[in-house]
Amino acid sequence: MSRFGVKEGGEARKPLPYITNYSQGFWEGTKAGELRIQKCNACSHKQWIPKAACEECGSIDLSWIKSGGKGKVYSYSIIRHVVMNSMAFEKEIPYALALIDLDDGVRVVGQVVECKPEDVKIGMEVEAFFEDIGGASIFKFRPRR
Amino acid sequence: MTLRGKAAIVSYGETPVTRARKDKGEPRLSYWEYFAWATSLALKKAGMTTKDLDGQGLAVMHPEVDHSLFLGVEVAEMLGVTSKWIITPSHGGASGCVGLAQAALAVSSGIVDRVLCVIGDAPMTYGDTMMLTEHRRDFEKPFGVMGPTSLFALVMRRHMEQYGTKVEHTGKIAVTQREHAVLNPDAVFKERFTMEDYLNSRMIAEPIRLLDTVMRVNGGSAFIVTKTEEAKRWTDKPVYLLGYGECNNYHHGSKALSDATLMGIGQASREALSMAGLEPRDMNFFQPYDDFTIAVLMQIEAAGFCEVGKGGKFIEETDLSYRGSIPLNTGGGQISAGQPGLAGGNLNLVEGVRQLRGEGEGRQIQGAKAGMVTGIGAVQYGRNVGYNSVAVLGSEL
Question: How far is Cα B234 from Cα B130, in angstroms, rounded to an integer?
C-alpha cells in the first residue's frame, strides 16, 4: 500500500475512518442500515458530527437516535477533479457532493447519486442509503421517490 | 484594555517562493531553512542581530507540513536565541494575524520589548501535510469531500443561491488580483488573464474553477513586533497595530443548521474597527486571506465594506485595483502570488505593511495610512471557516 492508498498494481482504496469510542455507535448503525445522530440527554439537542460533548449545553451525557435519513439539499458541488490522497474517487467523477439538511435538524455532507450530478438542485428532497466501502459503511443520498 | 497603538511592526522579511521543480533545477529546501532565511531577512532590514532577540519573545507559527512537536524551542535552538517567552500560533491561515496580536499583547504587557514572528513552510518539498483533523479523516474524506476546494465550493453555491452572486463576481476578484501580481516581482503568476479566460478555466469542484484557487509553493515569512516606545529605534517607518478582533467557531442560527454564508470575520472586524476608532470607509486597502475567491467576496461583506449578500453588486461597481477606492490584495494575494503553505497567512499581512511603509513599488497605493488585513483557517463541518482574525494597521498613531 502506497501512501496514497493505492495498492501495488491494484485499485485505489476508499479512505477509511478511524472508529473511536465516541463515534462507534454511528458506524454500528451504518452497518445495520441506520443513520444515527447524537442526541443530548440533558437538553435534547441533536447534533452531527459525533462529538464528545453537546455543542449546545456542554453535557457529556449523549446517546444515539435513529434519523429518518430524509432531508433537503442545502448546497452542492460537482466534483470534477480528485485530490492526490483520494484517488479511489477517480472512477466516480463527476459526482455531486452535497450538504443535506436532514428533517431531524442536523446537516450532513455526502454524495448524491442515482441521478445526473447536473440534476441536483438546492432544496431537492433526498433520502439516505448505505454502501460498504470495505471495513466500514457510509451513507450516500439519492433523490426521494 | 485596548491594544490600540501599543505595538508596531518595525521590519519584515519574505523569502522568494518556489514550486521547487527538480526539472528546472530549483532546490527543495526544508521548512527549517525557510524559518532561518525569513528571520535573517527581517533582522537585516531592522538592523538587528539574533543578539537583539535574546531575552525577548519568539512567535513560531506552525507550518502545514509534518513538523516537530517542539517546534518553538527548536527554532530558538537553531537561531541560538534564549527566549523569555515563546508562543506557537497554530491557527492555520490565521496564524499571521494571531501571532501579531499575541506579540502585541506581550510587548504591551511589558513581558518583553520585542517579538520575532516567523514561519517557514515547504509543501513542495514534503508533499504530505499534518494529520487531518479527525472529523475530516472520519466524516468527510470517506464521504467524498475533496479537500478545502470542495468545502468552499459548497459554501459558494449556497451564496450564489441565497444572494444571487454570480461567477463573474468572483471572476473580477481573480482578474484584479492577477493584475496586481503582474506588478509584484515576487509573484509566481505574472501572465494577465481576462474574464473570458477565467470563465473558460477548468472546473475543479463546481462552481470553483482553477483560477479561483491557490497554487502551493515553498517559502518563509517573518516580521518583528516591538512596543511602540522603541519602534523608532529600529525604523523610521513603523506600522502600528490600531485594532484587532478575533471570532472563532462562529455560528448563526441553530448550531446544527448554521447559515454557512456567514463568517466570524463579521464580529472580528467590528471589534477591530471599534478599537481603532475607524470605519470601513477609512480603510485605504483590504488584504483578506485568500485561499479561494469566494472567501474574499464573503470577507468583503463580513468586514462591512457592503451589506452581507450585496458583495457581488459591490464588486461590480467598485474599482478594486491599487488605484481604486478599496484596493484589494495589492500583491496579487495567495491566489496569484502563490501560497507558501501556512506562511501564506503572512503574505497579505506583509503586503499591508509594505503599503503603509510606501514600499509597494509599481503597485503603491497613494497616501495609504490605514488598512485591514485578515486571517482565516480551517473549515468547520457543514459551515464556514473556523479561525477568523482581523487586524487594522496604520502608519500613524
Answer: 36
